[in-house]
Every structure is written in C-alpha cells, then in structure tokens.
Amino acid sequence: MAIKFLAIFVALSGAVNGAFTKRATCADGTQIATRESCCVLFPILKDIQENLFERSQCGEEVYESLRLAVHDAIGFSLSKGPSGGGGADGSIAAFASVETAYHANSGIDDIIFAQAPYIAAYNITPGDFIQFAAAVGVSNCPGAPRLEFFLGRPPPTAPAPDSTVPEPFDTVTDILGRFTDAGFSPPEVVSLASHAIARADFADPTVPGPHSDSNPTIFDSLTKGSFKAAMAKLAVLGQDVRKMVNCSEVIPVPPKIATRTHFPIDITEKDYSIELPNVWDVTDRPTEMTEPFGV
Ligand SMILES: *[C@@H]1O[C@H](CO)[C@@H](O)[C@H](O)[C@H]1NC(C)=O
C-alpha cells in the first residue's frame, strides 16, 4: 500500500515539474530568469540600455549594433566548413584588425570600439554580446519584433574570411548564393534584406524604394514574424544550439506603435523583393539619425 502511494506521488511530482518551469531568483533578488544562467545578462542589459543605447533609445547605436550582428553572423559557409568562418561567434570583434579591413565592413570599427568595454567588463563572450546587444537594441524601437536570444557561444577561434558579407554592387544571384551557402532560403533572405529594418544596413538610400517611406512606422506586422524568425536563425549561425540556453525572456518587450500596418502609397509588398539588387550595404549614411528604421 505504502509503495503504491509512493509511486503515485512520484508520478504526480513528475507531472508537476513538467507543468511548471523552474524559475530562478537572480543575485539582485528582483530579476527572475527561467534559467539561472541567464541571470548574468541583467546587469549587462541595464548597462547597455543606460550607456551604449543612451537610455534605451532606438538610435544610431542600435542601427550599428544590428549591422554588426549581421556581419559577424554571416561569416559562415556550409560549403567551406570551418574555413568559411565561425558564424555568430564574435570573430568580427575579437579579430577586428582582420575583419574591419574587409570592404564590406567599412565603418564597422566604430561600433566594435563602442561595444568593446562591455565585452571586457562582463563575463560574456564577444559572440554572445554582439547578438545580445542587437536584440536589446532592436527592442528599443517601437513596433519592432521581440528578437530571441540564446546564450552560450564559445569564444571565436579565427577571423571570418573576406567576402562573406554581400555588398550593394553584388548581383541578386550572388547575394542569394551567398545566403544559400549560409543556410538561408530565398524567402528568408528577402525577409532579412527587404524588411524595414534592412534600412539599417541593406538599403541604399539613394535608390527610391521602401526606405523612402515618409511614415515613421518602423516595423509592419506583415514582415515582422518572418524577420524575427530569420534573425533567430542568423543569430546562432555556426553555433551548437543544444549547448545554448534560451534567454529570450531577458530581451525587453518593444514598445508598441499606434499606427496601423501599411505600405507607402505607391509601394506594394511585391516591390520589396525588387529592392534586392540595391539593398545590401550603406556606408555613407548620415551620422546622426533620430529614426534608424524609419525614413
Ligand atoms: C525561447 O523562449 C521563448 C520564451 O522566453 C519562447 O517564446 C521561444 O519559443 C523559445 N525559442 C525556442 C527556439 O525554443
């Protein structure tokens, strides 16, 4: 009888454990993360929101941090293997002298320099920090998707080779080819490159197109989901996700915007894909931007 009761009890407690995710109280007593290993992120979050992003603004540093996250991650190749780069491993920061010399990375040294003190001050790898900063930064932008964040990228071992980051003068075929080699499908490339956020890096402001939208809407809900999914994939390129911890709950919930989903008057959803030839990089942006993902 007693044994039977015990068996039922064990079965029940197993069910209870499965139903309720364990939560951990972090050192400061107030922040609670699903996984205790995510606790290390809260002080970093507070610091970068206050300082790097100048009180949680959606500004130039967000713009640059996202660009850095993309440029670091795309240093990955299915065909070349390890010699094609380690993906989202932080190599762009750890081997900055090599990777910032690549043409596609021109101007990226500023944000590497701005992020370096945080990487040095905290117990976090450059790969984790770069993707974390991008996800946190994007969360400051009204209407943005809440990006996922996984923690646990090992330190980078080598710089990515040159020519992993597509450039504006590359043909569509070349751009798609490069992304396919990194594991992306054409629709995923479109959601990354033609999305409103793509203005941060991929759009050429001299070419009339979606980026000439005069409405300050940052993200439209039509592409938000696919962008979030594509970014989630990009952020762990070359990484073993089974060894990483899902710390997405640490990423703040982006503020909402009041305006409805829309496309600019003379631009349809279809036109977004036509943008592809010109969408890659911007090196001559204005240095001061109040709305990096808007106009
Ligand atoms: C990561 O965790 C968030 C909740 O914090 C969840 O919504 C998301 O689906 C998880 N992602 C994966 C890939 O498991």
DSSP helix fraction: 25-40%
CATH domain fold name: Peroxidase, domain 1
- Which CATH C-level class is it? Mainly Alpha
- Can you count the beta strands? 4
Bound molecules: 2-acetamido-2-deoxy-beta-D-glucopyranose
Biggest beta sheet summary = 2 strands, antiparallel
Percent strand equals under 5%
Low-confidence stretches: 1-20, 195-217, 266-295
Domain module count:
1
Query: What oligomeric state do the depicted chains represent?
Result: single chain
N-end to C-end Cα span: 73 Å
What CATH architecture do you see? Orthogonal Bundle
- Helix count, DSSP H or I runs of 4 or more residues: 11
Mean pLDDT, rounded to whole units? Answer: 78
Spatial extent as radius of gyration: 21 Å
Compressed to H and E, one letter per element, the order equals HEEHHHHHHEHHHEH
**What is the structural class?**
mainly alpha
Protein name: Heme peroxidase
Keywords: Oxidoreductase, Peroxidase
Organism: Artomyces pyxidatus
